[in-house]
TrEMBL record:
It comes from the Eukaryota. It comes from Anthurium amnicola. Residues 132-228 form the Subtilisin-like protease fibronectin type-III domain. GO terms for biological process: proteolysis. InterPro entries: Peptidase_S8/S53_dom, Peptidase_S8/S53_dom_sf, SBT, Subtilisin-like_FN3. Belongs to the peptidase S8 family. Keywords: Hydrolase, Protease, Signal. This is Subtilisin-like protease SDD1.
Length: 254
């Protein structure tokens, strides 16, 4: 939250910054979405806000970070919120109790420890790796011995009952990206579909690299940022962390 228009006793308005200024705006947007979609979970609301965010400013230029250079995923996350589009996201990445419980299993907690907090039985025989938690963003670490990674996601159709989405990818530098399947077809009887994002390491130029996955239909664009950490590459400067995302044309996945 930088230079947020805020209400003040005197004068009638002022400009303030900080997470404490950003949080109430996001909370207000979440409340409006909850009212419009009473059956959406908190995860679905979060997904709608993230996947419809803007990565370009009002002049159509890349959103800048505090140095004036194009912001990367660390500086702006998924982008600048767009409440109007968030009310009609097309697809959402949803999460429930079992997803979070199985994720805690991956962190080393036992079923008993999680049950004490959750107040219900938990089965840790099917843990969910951090990179496969059904977030509306994608992140992976690739070392010298990790040439390939596969991330899985499930999306729920909350738009037109009959719709077709095609994958478009802006790959992070140093990685080739393939989405399988690269087309999602929803019908009245098919409301959720699963897909896999396959990453293959090439020759990274920086320790961190950023890209974007977009599911595009005739009415919606559902965007998810991609972040990759190359564990054996040492960052040398701020410039190394800048994304090429805004300067490349989206390409359909192979």
């Amino acid at each position: 939250g930088v230079n947020i228009l805020a209400a003040c006793p005197s004068p009638p308005y002022c400009i303030q910054s900080g997470t404490s200024m950003a949080s109430p705006h996001l909370s207000g947007i979440a409340a409006l979405l909850r009212k419009a979609h009473g059956n959406w979970s908190p995860a679905a609301i979060k997904s709608a806000i993230m996947t419809t965010a803007d990565v370009l400013d009002l002049q159509g230029k890349p959103i800048a970070d505090y140095t004036g250079l194009p912001a990367n995923g660390f500086a702006m996350g998924a982008g600048h919120v767009n409440p109007t589009r968030a009310a009609d996201p097309g697809l959402v990445y949803d999460l429930g109790f079992d997803d979070y419980a199985h994720y805690l299993c991956t962190l080393g907690y036992t079923s008993r420890q999680i049950e004490v907090v959750a107040g219900r039985p938990v089965d840790c025989s099917k843990p969910v790796a951090a990179e496969n938690l059904n977030y509306p963003s994608l992140a992976a670490q690739m070392g010298s011995q990790q040439q390939q990674r596969a991330l899985t996601r499930t999306v729920k159709n909350v738009g037109e009952e009959r719709s077709v989405y095609k994958a478009q990818v802006v790959p992070p530098d140093g990685v080739t990206v393939r989405v399988v399947p690269d087309t999602l077809t929803f019908t009245p009887s098919v409301k959720e579909l699963r897909f896999e994002v396959r990453l293959v390491r090439e020759e990274p130029a920086a320790a961190f690299s950023f890209g974007m996955l977009r599911w595009v239909s005739s009415h919606h664009v559902v965007s998810s940022p991609i972040s990759v950490l190359f564990a054996n590459v040492r960052p040398n400067s701020h410039d190394e962390l800048l994304p090429s995302l805004q300067h490349e044309k989206p390409t359909a996945s192979l």
